[in-house]
């Protein structure tokens, strides 16, 4: 849908060109302005809604692919930790020479099988599993955060593209009006109803609106291309816009928004999971300071001293480290816990600032939208009055050109405010986890 600012007072093309020469009046006047028009604001592309764009962006994002890989890595690590607990099956075969009868030599052959476990592994199993679970939960929460970031990015790109398209249409409409005014000025000059200066001013207006339209076109192309790359959608999806229903604007005060964000934001959950993993690792490090006790049991059978032997076996080994490495690792783990707790607190504070500011920005953009709408209406009324005065000879072409510029800029400002409000509302929804 094109945003036509030529509706109503902005349409100043003269109808005289459609009249036969004999019917042309001696004095050409601009038409009487109509009622104040409503600026159209499309809220969707015809080939790609905001919801579909979000789905496409999530499926097309390499950041989310990387986040999925991290989740898979941590899932495999948890499976490895689960399988680490349990006794080990051990076996051995020993052949050694022995002194035999009559000064001879005989071979001793012993075959043994059994199971063995280290008590320290059992003690460390629980915190290691807890750490692996926390790491997996952190990866999952981080993936949710990446998805939220991608959605926020997409919302910005989508509304930027819509705004650029609407502004382009407004600038092109203003250019069409300027060209119509130029033709009207030339007709009035030829009819002796206007000075040459009016034609010069109309040419200046055409040059200015041409430059504005060119910049608006390239801005539209850039914004649409950024959205196309992000979603992977075909270019045909962005050919036209449609006047879909305006998005539901979120109504929430900053304090409530912050409270809700603390309950729902994945960054806070991820930070807590990181802290949980660090605390579990610290518990494992403390248990690693205990002496390593290894217990094995089995059965041995073979020839010893030329006599067949067969009996159960038990092996107990105790290793007590004399270095302070284990205690140093505990101190290191405790320091990591303190660091992660501080990072979690920092994340919470950053969210407080960010969400509170976003909620206040939404209120401000809502007020700005109302203000720009009123400004556009006043500018349109001013243009109507100036145009009427120009028709009756009370206003100059310079005043008319200035009023038209003010009105065009007011339309652009109103369009920008519409989309800024819609984006601010969508961003706040994502900030609070919706």
Structure description:
By secondary structure, the protein is of the alpha+beta class. It has one domain: Outer membrane efflux proteins (OEP), CATH 1.20.1600. 64% of the residues lie in helices and 13% in strands. It is built from eight helices and six strands; from the N terminus they run βααββααβααββαα. A four-stranded antiparallel beta sheet has the order 2-3-5-6. A two-stranded antiparallel ribbon has the order 1-4. Strand 2 (88-99) and strand 3 form a beta hairpin. Helix 5 packs across helix 7 (325-391). Residues 1-37 have low confidence and may be disordered.
The assigned structural class equals alpha+beta
- Under CATH, the homologous superfamily reads Outer membrane efflux proteins (OEP)
> What is the level 1 CATH name?
Mainly Alpha
Second CATH tier, the architecture: Up-down Bundle
Proportion of helical residues: 55-70%
Residue fraction in strands = 5-15%
- CATH domain topology: Outer membrane efflux proteins (OEP)
**Rg, Cα atoms, Å:** 39 Å
| Count of runs of 4 or more consecutive helical residues | 8
Strand order of the largest sheet: 2-3-5-6
- Uncertain ranges: 1-37
Distance between the termini: 30 Å
Annotation, overall tally of beta strands: 6
The overall pLDDT, averaged over residues, is 81
Biggest pleated sheet: 4 strands, antiparallel
User: Helix-strand pattern, N to C?
Assistant: EHHEEHHEHHEEHH
Which terms would index this structure?
4-stranded antiparallel sheet, 64% helix, 8 helices, 6 strands, disordered N terminus, 434 residues, two-stranded antiparallel ribbon, alpha+beta, Outer membrane efflux proteins (OEP)
């Amino acid at each position: 849908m094109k945003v036509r600012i030529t509706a109503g007072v902005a349409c100043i093309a003269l109808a005289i060109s459609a009249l036969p020469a004999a019917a042309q009046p001696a004095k050409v006047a601009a038409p009487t302005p109509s009622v104040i028009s409503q600026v159209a604001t499309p809220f969707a592309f015809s080939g790609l809604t905001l919801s579909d764009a979000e789905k496409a962006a999530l499926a097309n994002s390499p950041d989310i692919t990387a986040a999925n890989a991290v989740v898979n890595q941590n899932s495999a690590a948890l499976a490895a930790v689960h399988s680490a607990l349990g006794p080990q099956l051990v076996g051995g075969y020993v052949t050694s020479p022995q002194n035999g009868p009559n000064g001879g030599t005989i071979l001793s052959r012993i075959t043994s099988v059994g199971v063995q476990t280290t008590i320290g592994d059992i003690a460390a199993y629980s915190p290691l599993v807890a750490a692996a679970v926390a790491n997996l939960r952190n990866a999952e929460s981080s993936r949710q955060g990446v998805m939220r970031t991608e959605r926020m990015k997409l919302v910005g790109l989508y509304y930027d593209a819509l705004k650029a398209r609407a502004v382009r249409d407004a600038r092109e409409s203003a250019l069409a009006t300027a060209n119509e005014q130029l033709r009207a000025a030339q007709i009035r000059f030829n009819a002796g109803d206007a000075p040459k200066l009016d034609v010069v001013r109309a040419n200046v207006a055409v040059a200015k609106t041409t430059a504005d339209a060119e910049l608006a076109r390239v801005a539209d192309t850039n914004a649409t291309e950024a959205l196309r790359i992000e979603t992977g959608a075909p270019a045909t999806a962005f050919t036209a816009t449609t006047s879909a229903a305006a998005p539901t604007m979120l109504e929430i005060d900053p304090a409530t928004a912050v409270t809700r964000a603390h309950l729902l934001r994945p960054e806070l959950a991820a930070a807590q999971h990181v802290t949980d993993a660090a605390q579990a690792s610290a518990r494992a490090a403390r248990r690693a300071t205990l002496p390593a006790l290894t217990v094995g049991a089995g059965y041995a059978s073979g020839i010893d001293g030329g006599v067949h032997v067969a009996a159960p076996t038990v092996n107990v080994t105790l290793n007590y480290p004399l270095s302070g490495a284990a205690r140093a690792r505990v101190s290191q783990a405790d320091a990591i816990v303190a660091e992660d707790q501080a990072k979690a607190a920092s994340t919470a504070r950053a969210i407080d600032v960010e969400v509170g500011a976003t909620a206040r920005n939404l209120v401000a953009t809502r007020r700005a939208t109302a203000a720009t709408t009123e400004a556009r209406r006043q500018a349109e009324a001013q243009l109507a009055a100036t145009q009427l005065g120009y028709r009756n000879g009370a206003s100059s072409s310079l005043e008319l050109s200035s009023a038209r510029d003010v009105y065009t800029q007011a339309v652009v400002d109103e369009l920008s405010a519409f989309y800024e409000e819609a984006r601010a509302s969508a961003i706040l929804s994502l900030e609070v986890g919706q």
